[in-house]
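A further point concerns the way the authors explain their paired sequence and structure data. For illustration, here is how one protein appears when written out as sequence plus structure tokens:
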Amino acid sequence: MRILLVEDDPRLANLVARGLREQTYAVDVCDDGRDAMVQAVVNEYDAIILDFMLPGKDGLTVIRELRARNVRTPVLMLTARDAIADRIAGLDGGADDYLTKPFDFGELLARLRALLRRPEVLQPDTISVADLCIDTRAHEVTRSGTPITLTGKEYALLELLARQTGRVVSRADIVAHVWDDNHDSFTNAVEVYVNRLRGKIDCAPFTPLIHTRRGAGYVLAAAAPK
């Protein structure tokens, strides 16, 4: 999952970004409302964490302009303001949730997970494909009850495929949701990580679940797509 973090306090931005990356999220960081608008329109994010008070353009203006442009990405607003009027303004402006500083990082993660479960259809905490089971809260993966240890990137890739079970996920979509702006799109990192994931998920004696659709992308499914 790829997150845009918009926060003008460098210390807080670094702490939150590091914590999110440790939880396997790809994170882009900016500290200005105008830059946030550009990033949010140009890139495809799964969620945006947006500070209320920002230089260039405040968070409330950013969220209103994003919604006016029909950018529907879930937004969690962060602010030191705890007045009810400010909370109402943020939510009425298009924010999906609101968290007042100072906050506990565990609560931020819980609210972020809740936002990521909302798109289109309610996303479950546990995803099962054949005998593969993915606990998206604990980031734990098993096959036939056997625990499988994955790196952060391997897990992020698997969760992305699992949330699109039975559908082709293109290389471009994988790059957009698993890597941040620092990724070199001309490398073969996607192919490398797919192969690593196959070595753990699809190793003998398990039936392969990750399938390649040549020229299109990858599919996680119980049976190879026709």
